[in-house]
Structures are given as structure tokens and as C-alpha cells.
Amino acid sequence: MLIIFFAVTVIFRLFYLQVLNDEFFIQKGLTQWLRDLPLTATRGSITDRNGVVLASSYTTYDVYVRPADTTDFEGVAKTLSSTLNEDYDEIYKKITSQNLSEIKIKSDIEKSVVEQILKNFKDGIFFTTNTERNYAYNEMLCQVLGFVGSDNAGQSGLEAFYNEYLKGIDGVSLVESDLRGDKLDDAITYYENSISGLNLTLTIDFKIQNEVEKILKQAHASTGAKAVSCIVTNPKTGEILACCSLPSYDLNNVPRNDYEQLNSLSRAGVIVDTFEPGSTFKAIVAAIAIEEGLASKNSFYYCGGYRIINGVKIRCSRRSGHGSQSLEQGLMNSCNCVFMDLIAKIGTKKFYDYLDKLGFTSTTGIDFPGETSAVLMPMPSVTAPDLARMGFGQTISITANHMMVGVGAVINGGKVVVPHFISSIKNEIGGVVYNREVTTKNAIFSEKTSKTMRELLFSVVSKGGGRYAKVEGYDIIGGKTGTAQKYENGAIAQGKYIASFIGFAPYDDPEYLVYVYVDEPVGAYYGGVVAAPIAKSVFEKIFEFESYNITNESQGESFVLPTYIGLTLTKASSELASSGLQYLVQGDGDYVTGQIPAPGTEVKENDVVLLIFE
């Protein structure tokens, strides 16, 4: 019985090893009798929508010596030292004193060097291939493209998000060897060729991206801001045409030795960072009110400079008030009181329902890693003063990406469109393996509401607080300005603001949506004065590229701006009105202490002047 028992045990064990688990042990055996050298796959390229190469890979080689296959160690050392500019004694010592099957001499050499080595000496010298990443325009799109690690795998941005498509499949060179790793006589060498990665075509337009980066560099320097960002999309399709944040870094020289700096510079703030949007959010509140039948273009409101809600005094941006005004005028003047009234009519439950439909309570689905959802108060915790502040873009924190999706739905006919960076994915011979289609989540606003909102936002730019975004000769831009407070440790950070502007063109059939925000500008901080001119420069370039026809709008005669410094607000506003100029107020005080533009600047009728009080 014991003999039978042990016999059955041995048979079962053999069956387990040779039949049930044969693949595992075959692989273990292969690692012992086959010596391998890697053949790294070429990583796929990344291009803009028109084929401009943004990221590509090139092949480099690692040099090895196999002592078992070397008959002339002195000749090998001499050839390698002279060709690679390495010390002869070090190489000779390395290849003669180590008991290894192959020894790496140098990494990442170019093909021309390999060819030179092979001309002089072949015996015992072997090469493996690697791929190195190259970014054609250094800092351009650095947060969007991301970078790869030493293993050629994506670590951030689109390089990380689409890594499985880009990386390809590595190959290997295998040769039969003995226990020590020496090549066997008559050994067979096996090659498993690498498969190149797929190529990405982005929705990014290189021409627009290039100009946006130039414009932001000038703005970053002139405003002294902590950061400046801009994103340009097609509101109908969700295609991202340009995306830039400054400061940035060089993708070909990634600061890997300073983790905090790298984390700060490589963050795609427009997608992963939240902030209070300020008055740009009024466009969304107005659209909700109009859609619900709670307001119309000509609904009237009264602003006395503040509202008292449940005993809490909440001020308008204009302390003296705007008086009686329509919804159109309320948007043009960016009156907080109008939007406190509107959101009170909408109510917390309905407002949060719209935020959910707009996608603010979740992520937008953009093809990018680390996307953040909006930061909202739990609905049961929202008080009447909290809701009032949400009406003008406070007590709510969202990303620029969410803002683009929300305002996009307001102006594109009411549809929530998923934003995206990828247009298509192709193989190495140009065959398309994936085409990105427009993805629509919800239809929230009617075309009628959307048309009304486009007209209202057009008024903001043509004759309201967004005047500085207007491009001379092109009466086709709509938009909204915003100025938001910043918070630190749960309290308002004094003197720190985010100035923003979101605009679109042509206003009757939008093809471009531009969002600019400036984090902590020095000096002037109003969105209409700081961010709107940046957006204007972006629109100018877009109109130039798209050859839009100039309108017949009368530009009016220019005149020299006088000084208003030392005047009261009443006196200054009276003089501005008589000159046909608009104005904004920054700060508190009895007398004007500064103005933008400066006295002596040439201006035209309906231009905006910032009056500074300290």
C-alpha cells in the first residue's frame, strides 16, 4: 500500500509539472539556456491636427562586449576607446576581469558611431537599440504632452494617458548559451522584432498654439502674475485647439532633480486645479434663469450697491449701486445684485440639478490624467447667503475645463460636449485605427435660450465691461469678464485675485471659445482690464488665420485721455460719460489715485477706463 501510495504521488507530481504547469517551467528553462538582449520598440509620434510633429522618437544604441566571443581583447579595447572617447585601460579592465556573459560599455550612442565601430572591429562587439524622446518645440504644450521616464514610459500628460498606444511592443535577441552564459557552438540566435507604437494626431492647431504661447509670455511679464493660462476650444465639437499655462518648462530638459518644481510646472492647471470663477459664472446663471422662464433679456432689477440676505450684507462690485437696469445691462455691468436675485428665484435644488447636468459634480471625461471635479458645498448645507454668492461665482470652485464645457453649452445651442485632445490614432504606415467622434452628454438649454445668451454676451463685449476684448473692425465677439477672490487657509487672501475672461466668436455661430485667466496679477486685477486684452490678442490671431471679413463697424475718432486722478467718483464718472467712455472701479476711497489707461493715451468712444481708489 505504501509503494502504491508513493507511486501515485510521484505520478501525480510529474503530471502536474509536465502537463498542468508545463508553460511555467518551459519559460523558466528558457531564461537559463537563452541569453537575451532587449530591442526597444520605437515610441509613437504625436502631431497636431495638420501633421506638425510635436513629439517623436529616435533610435540610439547601447554597446556591449561578449568576452566569450572575443579573440582580441586589446583590439576591442583600442577600437572602443578611440571611437567612444573612453579610457583604454578602463575598457580593457572591464572586458577582461569580469566573469559576465556580456558587459555594457556605453549607452545611447548614435548610428554613425555604431557604423564607425563596425568598420574597425566586429569580433565580440554587440549592440542593442533604444529609443529617445524628442520634443520639437521644447516648452510648447509641456503640460499637455507630458514626458517619459528612463524606461520610455509616459509619466505625465498625454504621454501617460495614451501610453499603452504609444509605447509599442519591445523585441528581443536570444542566443543559446551554457550555464556561464557563453554562446554554445553552432548556437541558434532568435530574433523577436519590436513593434513600433501607434501615432497620435491631436486636435491642437499648431498655428493657434504657437501664437497663444507668445501672447501669454508677454502677458506673464507685463502683469507680473503668478501664472497665466489660456485654453481655446471649438464649443460645438469639444476639440481643444490650444492650451497653455505659464510658467512652463523644457520637455527636453525636465527638472527631475527637483520634485516640487517639476510637480508645479508640469500640472495642467486648466484641467486639474479648481478656483472660484467669479463673474464669468454669471453667464451660466443667466442661462439657467432664462431656460426656466424666470428671466428675459428685458427683465428689470434694482441695485442699491448691496443685498441683505438673512441678515448678511453682500455687496455689489459697485458700492454706490447700478440703479435700475435690465438683465442685459446687469451682465454688461457685471452687477452682483442682479444675479443674487436670479439665483434666489432658481433655488438651490434646481441650481444643483443644472450643475449636475453640466457635469460639474463629476469629471467631464476629457482624455487627460488627473482631471478634477468641481468643489461644491453639500446641497443641504447651502444657506441663502451661500446661494446668493454662488450667483456671481463665489462659494463654488471649478476648473477652467468645467467652465469651458458650461459656457460652451450656453452658446452652442445647449449641448454639453465632452472636451478632448485626440483626433485620431494611426499605425506606422498611416492606417487609422481610431477616430474620435463628437460626444454629447446632455442637451440642457434650448436653442432659443442659447441665442438669447449669445446676444447678451455680445453686448458685454460691444458696449460693456468686456470692451477690451473687442478686436477693431470685427464686431463678432461675445464674452464675460470675471474677477475672483482667492482663499488661503479658509480665509480671503487680501490683495490676491484671479482675473479672467471667457469669450467666443463669431457670436451668432460660435466656432472658437477662448478662456483666459491670470492668477495674482500685480496692480490692476479686474478681468475686463487684465484678462480681456489677452483674449483680444488671441482672437486677432485667429481672425488673421481664418481670414474673417472685417465688418463695416465705425471705429470713431480717437482722442487723448485726460487725467481723472484726484477727482471723486461722481465727478470722474460724469466726465467719462460726457466723453463717451465706460469705466470700472477698483478699490475703495474718496478720490481717484490711479487710472488705466494712463493719461495721454489715445482712446476711442466706448473704451473702458479703470479708476483706481486706494
Report on the structure:
This protein has 614 residues and is an alpha+beta fold. Helices cover 34% and strands 26% of the residues. It contains 20 helices and 28 strands. Strands 2, 3, 4, 5, 8, 18 and 19 form a seven-stranded mixed β-sheet that branches. A five-stranded antiparallel β-sheet has the order 10-9-23-22-21, sandwiched between helices. Strands 1-6-7 form a three-stranded antiparallel β-sheet. The longest helix is centred in the last third of the chain and has 20 residues, at 527-546. It starts with a helix and ends with a strand. 43% of the residues are buried.
Summarize this structure as a short list of keywords or feature phrases.
614 residues; alpha+beta; seven-stranded mixed beta sheet; five-stranded antiparallel beta sheet
Number of strands: 28
What's the alpha carbon Rg, rounded to whole Å?
32 Å
How much helicity do the residues have? 25-40%
Shape: elongated
In short:
The chain is α+β, with helices and mostly antiparallel strands and 614 residues long. The protein has 20 helices and 28 strands.
